[in-house]
Amino acid sequence: MITTVTMNAAIDKTYYLPAFPHGKVSRIRQYLAAPGGKGINVAKVAAQLGAMVTASGIVGGMNGEIIKKQLDEMSIAHQFVAVEGESRLCLNIIDEETGSSTELLEPGPVVDNRALDEMEQTMAALARTSKVVCISGSLPAGAPADYYIRLVSAAKKEGAYVILDASGDALRCGLQANPDMIKPNEEEVAALLGTGIRDEQELLRAMEDLLREYRMERVCVSLGGAGSLTVTSQGRYRAVTPPIQVVNTVGCGDSFVAGMAVSLLKQLPAEEGIAMAAAAGTANALSAMAGSVDPDSFRRLLGQVEISRI
Known about the structure:
Blueprint lengths: L1 E5 L3 E8 L12 E7 L1 H11 L4 E8 H13 L3 E7 L4 E8 L5 E5 L7 H15 L4 E5 L10 H11 L3 E5 L2 H7 L6 E2 L3 H8 L6 H14 L4 E5 L5 E5 L2 E6 L11 H14 L4 H15 L10 H8 L3 E4 L1
Helix pairs in contact: 1-8, 3-4, 4-5, 6-7, 8-9, 9-10
C-alpha cells in the first residue's frame, strides 16, 4: 500500500474566464473543483494507476468533510486528523484570452500539539502496512518547521520507503531524518547546499552531494518540458518526455511522485520507475484537473519516455 500525507489539505477550484478584468464583475462560465493539496494529488494519481492507497493528513470544518466525501466518491481510502477551523480553498483563475493563471491560496487551519501528536500516531500506524509513504507539501500554521523530522522518522521506523516532497525550512529540517527520496527543484538544491548552480553538470554534482550527505536513495529534479534528472547510488539518469500540448501544469510534480511511488510498490528497477514518474507527470499536463492522469494516456506516454544514463 501507499500512504500519502497532506498536512494542509485543500479544495482546489479552477475558474475559467474569457477575460479577467480587474475591478469588474466576472461571471464564471466553467469551473472545476476537487480535493487537493500535494499529497492528495499523489493519492489520486496513484489510485488512477491502479495502486492501493490511503490519503492521510489534516482537515477541518465543512471543507474537510467535502474533501473526505469527494475522496469516497473516488474510492480512495482516507484516515485524516480533524481539527477546528476550515480546510483551505485554493483558487486558480484561468484567463482564456491570455492563457495566464492566477492562484489565490487560503492559509488553512491552525493546528495544535494534540493534532500534531495524533497525526504522527496515525501516520505511524498506516506506515506499518505501507511499502511507500509520501509526505508532501507545506506545513499548516501552528506546526514547527522541523515537524517533518517526526513524520519521516516515524515512517522509517515502521520500515516504509519515505518520499519527502517539501520546500524551504520544512524540507531542510526534514532531511535531518534521512528520507529515502526527495524531489526539489534546481533553486531548492542550490539553497540546501548554499551554492550557485551554473549548468547541468553542477546540478548533477549538487544532487549527488545531497544524496551522500543525507544517505538517501534517490534525488529527482524536474526540468519541466525538458524532462527530469535523477541521481541514485547506481548512477545518473535523464528522462526525456515527448512533446505535448500542455493543458495544465498544476499537479505535474505530484503526479511524478505518484508514478515513482507506484513503481516502488511494484519493486521495479530504477530506470522503469523514472520512466513511470516522467510519464505520469506528463500525462497530468494533458488534463485540466490537477492530479488527474488518464490511464490510456499514461500507457501511451510511458512507451515514448526515453531514459538514458549520463
